[in-house]
């Protein structure tokens, strides 16, 4: 079963008429930085089709930063219980913000998870490349490890580093 995508205007209409439940699948720190008012926080790693919100009789819409994690969550939920009616907000909260719709901020400043992963991998590749050049060429093998991790993430849509970073204290 394919994920159904909706746009910001449709979501706004559904929320205004109380036809939908909106779930934010980002991490708590990201939600604190910016959130769609009324969205329930349920991080991707903890979302489960057995949750009562899927039996509320309302449409369930998932959102994340830009749509990728919510798509993953929709696919996971549809695989668990294919009969649920579930939607993905195309473009995530970024699309909501671009449409000049209200955004809540509960304090905190943290980078989105995908950018934290990019910064971590970029920094580590640079560090181990420099160590390999100046200290010992064997250090460059670590850069191959990160390359394999990126290939795996691209092929499987699963990133171990993202899961690890999501558990860090600043993301809670």
Please characterize this protein's 3D structure.
The chain is an alpha/beta fold and 172 residues long. It folds into two domains: 4-98, Rhodanese-like domain (Oxidized Rhodanese, domain 1); 113-171. Helices cover 47% and strands 11% of the residues. It contains seven helices and five strands, in the order βαβαββαβαααα. It has helices at residues 8-16, 28-33, 68-80, 92-98, 113-134, 140-156, 160-166; strands at 4-6, 20-24, 40-41, 59-63, 86-89. The chain has a five-stranded parallel β-sheet. Strand 4, helix 3 and strand 5 form a beta-alpha-beta unit. The chain is elongated and about 65 Å long. The model has no long low-confidence stretch (mean pLDDT 90).
Strand content: 5-15%
The secondary-structure class comes to alpha/beta
CATH topology-level name of the largest domain: Oxidized Rhodanese, domain 1
Query: Measured on Cα atoms, how large is the radius of gyration?
Result: 18 Å
Give the fraction of residues assigned to helices: 40-55%
The geometry reads as: elongated
Order of helices and strands: EHEHEEHEHHHH
How would a textbook summarize the main sheet? 5 strands, parallel
User: What value does the average pLDDT take?
Assistant: 90
């Amino acid at each position: 079963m394919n994920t159904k995508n909706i746009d910001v205007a449709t979501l706004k209409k559904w929320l205004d008429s109380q036809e939908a439940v909106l779930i934010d699948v980002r991490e708590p720190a990201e939600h604190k930085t910016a959130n769609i008012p009324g969205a329930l926080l349920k991080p991707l790693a903890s979302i489960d089709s057995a949750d009562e919100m899927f039996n509320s009789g309302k449409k369930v819409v998932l959102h994340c930063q830009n749509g990728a994690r919510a798509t993953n969550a929709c696919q996971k939920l549809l695989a668990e219980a294919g009969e649920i009616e579930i939607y993905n907000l195309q473009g995530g909260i970024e699309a909501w913000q671009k449409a000049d719709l209200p955004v809540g901020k509960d304090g905190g400043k943290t980078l989105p998870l995908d950018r934290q992963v990019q910064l971590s991998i970029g920094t580590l590749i640079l560090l181990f490349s420099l160590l390999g050049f100046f200290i010992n060429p064997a250090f460059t093998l670590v850069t191959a490890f990160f390359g394999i991790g990126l290939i795996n993430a691209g092929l499987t849509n699963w990133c171990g580093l993202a899961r690890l970073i999501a558990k860090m204290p600043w993301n809670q």
